[in-house]
Amino acid sequence: MTETFAPTRMLLLDDARLADLRSRLDGDLAPQWRRLAEQCDLYRRTTPPAEHPLASITYLGPAAANLALAYRLTGQRHYLDEAWRWISAAVSFDHWGRAHLPDHDLDAGWILHGLSLAYTWLGEDLEPERREALRAKLALQGERLFDFAVANEGSWWSSSFWQNHHWICHTGLATVGYALGVPAWTERAKAAMGTVVDVLPADGSDMEGVVYWRYGVPWLATYLDLLHDAEGVDWWDRCRFLARTFFYRLHQAAPGYEEIVDHGDCHDRRSGHSVALYRILASRYRIGEAQWLADTVAERFFWREAYESGVRPGVLPEAWAELLWYDASVAPVDPATSVPAQAAFEDLGLLVHRTSWDDDATLVSFKSSPGGGHTAWDTSRRLDAERGWDTLSAGHHHPDAGSFVLASRGAWLLVDEGYSNRKRAGHHNLVLVDGQGFAGEGRYHVYADAPPDRTADMVDVLAEGGFLHGRARTGRMYPAELGVESLERTLVVLPSGRTVVVDRGRAAEPREWTVLLHADHPAEAVELGVPHDGVGDGADDGAVRRVLRNGRAGAWLTTRAAGGARADQVVTDVEANPTSSTPSLVVTRRLHTVRVTPPVSRDLLAVTVVEPFDAFRPTPSTARLLPAEDPLTTEVAVELGGGERAYLAGPDGTIDAGGVRARARAVLVAGDRAAVVGATRIEIDGRIVLADDGDAGGTEVTAVLPIGVRA
């Protein structure tokens, strides 16, 4: 057993801070104190388990911390007695965690953290026998976790730097190390977390998705807070991920902020908020928008998040951190006044467009990257080659490169599947080839053992001024035996939210290409001859037409493929257990899937237009796909109505349609502005918008330009 020593001080607290906090409990900290007091009263009305349940017991850790903080702030004996009631339950269990990796995983990390804080906060006010029992249990569990981390270095969470288990377990180990005075434990955690701080993506994006962002990222902040307090080491500026990650989370909020974009493993669309994390990010990085969102969630969404979230232990136990991390000096800033409505996160290949920050806006989120994102994919391979390790552990990252989702007017129209254990590209809005998705799929960790060249990316990115454009290159993700030479999806969104998706593919042999569109509710077929869309007179032109409705939201879906296409609609059921620590927990989602399949061919060209509308006040489709003599070698041109047009070049990089002549990969027109991508020359309706002065190899421009002004 590692020798331990009594701590010399309380973690995160000293006499001066305690005096300050106490003086503010009926002032600016009154809401935070009310939350803490209510949470402690919830513990009073709940009985901790007498025997270790099969399910997770992570909640025992923050229960001890909340009650101990309430006692230290007030001196009221009942909080001390209640804290011991919960602590004694954890102390009585021979092991922490029963169903999966007892003593060596999330239960151990959570409980070590919470009980170690309580140990230092309660101090000598615990009776000697109780204090010694708690100290001995912390020493035993700390030793077990430390030994596991050392023995498994290079595998699983011990060295999985981009994974929440790593952050939670090492933070628990650090906390008990500081509490008991064990430098070996704190130095182990410091070395591991130092690597995390340096290798997480600087743009703040999280390959695990919003739910695990909400679950895991607070532990990064917790560790940095402890490190600063215990050692005076400030890593806040060093961690560029934490400095930017709030904006990743903000842009993955569905319109109205209450729900989330559920790329990656997401139990549901509500498990996305952490008031405590917003508070400390606001404080450390002076992010007024984080303070605003914390206020908004606390006032409007908190209890729905608490009781509808599928993630446990959830937001309620974070009361202690909400109080300690609140900084009244940071003024709240409404994102609608300060944050652009389009964003790009290069590491994850994530592009986000919303028509505004209003609750009824239309949102599109589109992504494409290697497993884990570019930084994790490249860095893990370098570390693994240098050390013989296996560090990526991207099991929460889905085979979804090239996929997108769309919400409008408070409802979801095109969706992801949420959580899955056997992950498949077919659960996403993607393209199947001969009915198959990505190589390595059908298991939990799709990217395990993948060769270095099995990658996807996002190029030709423009995300500004109400426009979005990106080209996802995903051909390498498919099994080699399919002979996919290329598969690219270009997605553009205009200021109105109208969206155009162009899929181009080529294979060594003729293949069956199937475009998938998933929704929460069945799509309805649109009868031919009904003038719903402005495409000719409704005659059969080979296009597949559907309409989606969900509450107030609606969208016309029109897909036209070279050579025509057949369409059918099927039910796709996805069932998963999101945590091995609770085997009985099952989440399910039913998707209603439209499958659009052109005739078998070596080549694919399919154009899908999505036109959102108000289902309570429906308007007809106005999109019109302009004819092209050879759609496999020429541009795609779509007149969308309302002064919006989209022109996407073919393989030759030129556009000549609908009044636009250009050398460019894309020209998107809305009123008196044009978004151009990879352009060297643009002429719109006879006006030169971008001139190359005869130099065909001139510098490419990607920007939003006013029409009629020479650039």
From TrEMBL:
Domain of life: Bacteria
Main location: membrane
Record's subcellular location: Membrane
Keyword tags: Glycoprotein, Isomerase, Membrane, Signal, Transmembrane, Transmembrane helix
Bilayer disposition of the protein: Multi-pass membrane protein
UniProt protein name: Heparinase II/III-family protein
